[in-house]
Specification:
Blueprint (H helix, E strand, L loop, with lengths): L1 E10 L5 E10 L33 E4 L1 H6 L1 H4 L8 E3 H10 L2 H12 L6 E3 L17 H19 L6 E4 L3 H7 L6 E4 L1 H8 L6 H17 L11 H10 L2 E8 L7 E5 L2 H5 L9 E4 H5 L7 E6 L6 E4 L24 E5 L2 E8 L5 E5 L3 H4 L7 E6 L7 E4 L3 H4 L2 E9 L8 E10 L3 H11 L9 H6 L13 H5 L2 E2 L6 E5 L8 E7 L5 E8 L1 H4 L5 H9 L3 E2 L4 E2 L4 H7 L7 E11 L5 E12 L2 E4 H9 L3 H7 L8 H31 L10 E5 L5 E6 L4 H24 L5 E4 L9 H9 L9 H10 L7 H13 L4 E4 L28 H13 L11 H35 L9 E10 L2 E6 L4 E6 L7 E4 L5 E4 L1 E5 L3 E6 L2 E6 L3 E9 L7 E8 L5 H12 L7 H6 L13 H8 L8 H7 L7
Parallel strand pairs: 3-6, 4-5, 6-7, 20-27, 21-28
Antiparallel strand pairs: 1-2, 8-9, 8-11, 9-10, 11-14, 12-13, 15-16, 15-18, 16-17, 18-19, 21-22, 22-23, 23-26, 24-25, 26-27, 29-30, 31-32, 33-34, 33-41, 34-35, 36-37, 38-39, 39-40, 41-42
The chain binds zinc ion (ZN).
Length: 1049
């Protein structure tokens, strides 16, 4: 081994850069990470998250330090794979590029889908390149990159061309054609040669080049105007400063932002420290942007302020709870709360932002900065961004993506650059693309590399089970009657059931789940992709799968009459439904029936045999005695299942499980994709039955893995609600004379059950919905990360819980399958994640789930908007009944049962006028005041006065408020103080059909609204024939398949 000395710069704990001399030991066995290697470098393939250099590439790309710094964003583009970053380059980025850039580079290298690696060139005897006396840093870095490029070419025996990219002109001219198949290009030349087909890449290159030139002219420190890191850290430790994420109130974005404290921080401190910290106005926000991780200094008490209690414009819903403030306070202000100002930024959490140009010319010219334009983000919480572009005229009607580069201390706005256009505002594809970007969801098609890993199943080449694999499993194909019950049209069936009487009089219940991990080994490309996506994303009109179609709707889907691999949990239950034995393991199953909810319910409710047969295709092939016998068996099984579930559920309810409320509405579309109506969804007992079986399986799997891996099992917990959060619920119930007890989940469940107004089922429904809002979110965690007494699931009243039953659609379930299979010795356990890695993964999955839910909500709102866009204002469907459920200083929030929508109704306008509805039923805006008390809000006008109480019904008119820059929203105008005519019909209908009060929120959690609740109609088969062969995105058939119910919460 040779020894060299080299000067290095290292950052010490105070953040200062210091020089040290390090000894370098040069070796010959530094791995190249290439699958083409013949030299036998040890490859890091078994490190789980790393897969080495991409296989499917025409060349390897080696950028020098300057290119990596200036054009990292281009290197991050998904299509660019097989990039080698030398250690010299990453060192440079770490010390000169700033923390954010270095983090991005690290995550690029870690991202298995990029097939890119770090090459330790400075430890490699033959690629090491000594800096010469007097040589400029950049020149040396470029030269060293070239030396590594040559080394790669030689080391791989010329099997693949190497492209080195540099902007060093002199070097370019000299080395362009110096060695065959080691190409030296500038970025522009590289993109033109290899990537000219990628849309938007030219624009991105130009934008980055422009941004680069600008930053040269004015060097900006990312963190100037903030306290140094060392001071921030000391302040946090001493309790003088508080650290947290900045959360801007989207209804009042210029005035209000909050810092949410972590519970660990607040628990140990005084009671006032428990609340969030208010950051009032843009000045105290000190250039922090929504989502940034910041450090704040608390202001002295006399400077504390209250948050606004008025409804602000553009408020469509109020998700946060109004804390217990008294109405005698200042008119529109709540109690004062801890107030602070931002003194430092720990981490910028900037993402891609969807923006558009201002519609009025004047608003666009940016004072003082020539050639610059201000753009308006789609998200109200993000400030306007200054970009330079020559494309204002061509992109005026478009939504575009921009990224923020910096926010100089002397500027009112951050600087950014244009990334690409999403298309014309108002087009459905543009709007859907926008909401995906806003929720940081990427939906690129699965790559060839991923698809190549997967088994094939086609007519010519059908997939068959390997006999050796079958012999390793318990075979249930003939011994058990297995069936599935899902929404109509569901294609990704991940759960099936069986139930039968045992000779000893006991019952045997089985839950059989798709064996996804058999097809998706840990660390494979498909696994990395699924991990990155974490969940299938369901939008109102389409879905983006977590796993490729050959798995999600074919080989893993437990459809009827085919053999499938499963992972089963099978219990033996005695007469009291106590578990006397449980078996976990891999199985082979053959589902006999793929039922949908309505037909399974009808089977129990006594539908005639003829009708049943007409609705169950699997029975139609049978005749005579076989038919009768099969039908009788199936009916018995469904009834037995419902019977078992009732018992299981009763036991959980006794333990304090909550029935919560989410208004669920389904969208009905006609065949031209026009929405015909939005109607509340009927609830059936069979929904509970299936949900209960899934809860049972999840619970028992949680027990098994938590016992086997006390420090690294993936569980799901639902924490206790924060006490103050029930205030609004308690007050609302009190207004109706009900008492809500919140001391335990059981007390809460029981008191909610008693809040029944025989005249108005809405009262109970709304109170449950308020209870739901007060809850914390359920989260995934690693058992090593929190103490054992925190494992419980509050809403389900279980001591341990996890997700096991939907591995096709949720990545958490994939991990849980691996843990269960390891625990029972059916899978190697070396793949299991450590507590730390699992905790990081849980965080990632939790974030992805939240994003998916937000995207779903945004898409539902988009479709609501489309529905009302096409309606005449006098259309019958725009005038609806609404129930008041929250009071504000200038109006109230209502729930609209017909559409399951919540929204604000203003009694006082921005101009200070109030609305009064006279005898003639004509709303008039006049001068007057609005007074709010605990249970009512009163309008006093020159024409007369009226008091609105909680739970009053009124009639509102819905109209669409179109917006150019932001999502369009619904406007609710009060038209009558009386309930709407249609209310009576709806109330009758819904109570007749089913007890609407019994909607179970937990069911929604277990069976997240999967696919279609949409009747595919008689034309479906013809359409499938006609369009089933077309590429998915062009297919009308897939359009039909993708309509699915909307759940409006
Ligand atoms: Zn090698």
């Amino acid at each position: 081994m040779e020894r060299r000395e080299r000067q290095l710069r290292v950052r010490n704990s105070q953040g200062h850069s210091i020089r040290v001399v390090r000894e370098l030991y040069l070796r010959e066995d530094i791995p190249c990470h290439s699958p083409l290697c013949l030299a036998g470098c040890e490859t890091p393939l078994n490190q789980g998250t790393h897969t080495g250099l991409a296989k499917e590439v025409t060349h390897y790309l080696i950028p020098d330090a300057q290119v990596t710094t200036d054009y990292l964003e281009i290197l991050e583009v998904t299509e660019l794979t097989g990039i080698v970053f030398t250690q010299s380059v990453t060192d440079y980025v770490q010390h000169e590029g700033g923390r954010r850039l270095h983090n991005r580079l690290k995550s690029l290298i870690k991202n298995g889908r990029k097939g890119s690696v770090l090459f330790n060139n400075e430890f490699q005897k033959f690629s090491y390149c000594e800096r010469q006396a007097g040589e400029a840093l950049q020149d040396w870095l470029t030269r060293s990159t070239y030396q590594s490029s040559v080394w790669y070419y030689d080391h791989l025996a010329g099997k693949i061309p190497i492209v080195m990219v540099t902007e060093n002109r002199e070097f370019l001219e000299e080395h362009e054609n110096k060695k065959i198949n080691v190409f030296v290009m500038d970025m522009k030349g590289y993109l033109d040669t290899f990537w000219s087909h990628l849309s938007g890449i030219d624009d991105l290159f130009e934008a980055l080049t422009a941004a680069k030139e600008e930053s040269v002219s004015k060097a900006e420190d990312e963190y100037s105007g903030y306290l140094p890191l060392a001071v921030l850290e000391a302040g946090i430790k001493a309790g003088r400063f508080v650290q947290g994420n900045l959360h801007v109130n989207k209804h009042n974005p210029m005035q209000e932002a909050f810092i949410k404290r972590t519970s660990a921080q607040s628990a140990s401190e005084a009671s006032h420290m428990d609340s969030d910290i208010l950051i009032p106005g843009m000045g105290t926000r000190n250039r922090a942007i929504h989502g940034d991780s910041v450090v704040v200094e608390l202001l002295p008490r006399p400077q504390w302020k209250g948050k606004s209690l008025a409804i602000k414009e553009n408020e469509e819903e109020q998700l946060s709870n109004v804390s217990g403030t008294s109405p005698e306070e200042e008119e529109d202000m709540g109690d004062v709360m801890p107030t602070g100002r931002v003194v430092g930024i720990l981490q910028r959490n900037w993402r891609d932002y969807v923006v558009s140009f201002s519609q009025d010319e004047a608003g666009q010219k940016n004072p003082g900065r020539a050639g610059k334009v201000l753009v308006i983000p789609w998200d109200y919480r993000i400030p306007k961004i200054r970009i330079s572009t020559r494309q204002v005229d061509t992109l005026r009607e478009c939504r575009i993506i921009v990224r923020i580069d910096s926010w100089p201390a002397d500027s009112a706005y951050p600087n950014g650059h244009l990334v690409k256009s999403l298309g014309t505002i108002g087009d459905i594809e543009t709007e859907v693309a926008a909401l995906l970007v806003e929720n940081t969801i990427t939906v690129a098609p699965f790559s060839d590399g991923q698809l190549k890993e997967l088994p094939v199943n086609s007519e010519d080449d059908p997939w068959v089970m390997e006999p050796i694999e079958v012999s390793r499993r318990k075979d249930l194909r003939t011994s058990h009657l297995i069936f599935s019950i899902d929404p109509k049209g569901c294609e990704d069936v991940d759960d099936t059931l069986s139930v039968r009487k045992l000779p000893n009089g006991h019952l045997e219940l089985g839950v059989h789940i798709a064996d996804v991990t058999y097809f998706v080994p840990s660390g494979s490309l498909t696994d990395l992709e699924a991990q990155s996506r974490s969940t299938t994303v369901y939008l109102a009109d389409r879905r983006y799968d977590m796993l490729p179609g050959v798995l999600s709707s074919d080989l893993c889907s437990l459809i009827s009459n085919v053999d499938r691999f499963a992972v089963s949990v099978i219990w033996e239950l005695d007469q009291q439904m106590e578990v006397v034995g449980v078996w976990y393991g891999r199985t082979v199953i053959r589902s006999q029936y793929k039922l949908f909810y309505e037909i399974a319910q009808a089977m129990h409710d006594g539908m005639s045999d003829e009708e049943l047969v007409a609705n169950i295709p699997e029975l139609q092939k049978l005749h005579g005695d076989t038919l009768n016998k099969s039908l009788a068996e199936l009916k018995e099984a469904v009834n037995m299942l419902m019977h078992v579930s009732r018992h299981l559920k009763a036991r959980r309810t006794l333990g304090g499980a909550l029935e919560l409320e989410g208004a669920e509405v389904q969208v009905q579309m006609d065949d031209t994709k026009k929405i015909e109506d939005l109607t509340p969804k009927a609830h059936l007992e069979i929904h509970d039955t299936i949900a209960e079986c899934m809860i049972f399986a999840n619970h028992w799997v949680a027990r098994k893995i938590a016992d086997s891996y006390p420090n690294q099992a993936l569980l799901r917990h639902h924490p206790l609600p924060r006490e103050g959060h029930f205030e609004n619920l308690i007050q609302c119930a009190k207004a109706k004379g009900f008492e809500i007890r919140t001391d335990s989940n059981k007390a809460l469940a029981e008191s909610l059950d008693k809040c029944v107004d025989p005249e108005d089922p809405m009262v109970n429904k709304l109170l449950r919905s308020l209870a739901t809002q007060a809850m914390s979110n359920a989260m995934y965690f690693s058992t090593g990360a929190i103490s054992r007494d925190q494992f419980f699931h509050y809403g389900l009243a279980l001591d341990r819980y996890t997700h096991f039953t939907s591995p096709i659609r949720r990545y958490a379930d994939v991990i849980v399958h691996r843990q269960l299979l390891s625990a029972i010795g059916q899978m190697e356990s070396h793949d299991l994640l450590s507590n730390n890695n699992l905790s990081d993964l849980c965080q990632h999955i939790n974030n992805k789930h939240r994003s998916a839910q937000n995207a779903q909500r945004d898409s539902q709102e988009l479709f609501q908007a489309l529905f009302f866009r096409d309606k005449h204002p006098d259309d019958e469907c725009c005038k609806v009944d609404a129930v008041i459920f929250q009071l504000r200083a200038n109006g109230f929030l209502v729930f609209i049962p017909r559409y399951g929508i919540k929204g604000p109704v203003y009694l006082r306008s921005k101009e200070g006028q109030v609305v009064y509805i006279s005898e003639t039923e004509q709303p008039e805006w006049t001068s007057g005041t609005v007074q709010r008390s605990w249970t009512s809000v009163t309008v006093d006008s020159v024409l007369g006065s009226h008091t609105y109480n909680l739970f009053d019904h009124v009639t509102v008119k819905l109209s669409l408020q179109l917006s150019h820059a932001h999502p369009s929203s619904l406007r609710l105008d009060l038209v009558s103080n009386e309930r709407h005519q249609s209310w009576v019909d709806i109330a009758l209908e819904t109570t007749e059909k089913t007890d609407i009060v019994k909607e179970v929120h937990t069911a929604a959690e277990e069976k997240p609204e999967k696919v279609v609740n949409f009747d595919l109609g008689s034309d479906f088969n013809r359409l499938q024939e006609m369009y089933g062969q077309t590429a998915e995105k062009d297919s009308l058939y897939s359009l039909f398949q993708s309509f699915r119910e909307m759940a409006l919460v």
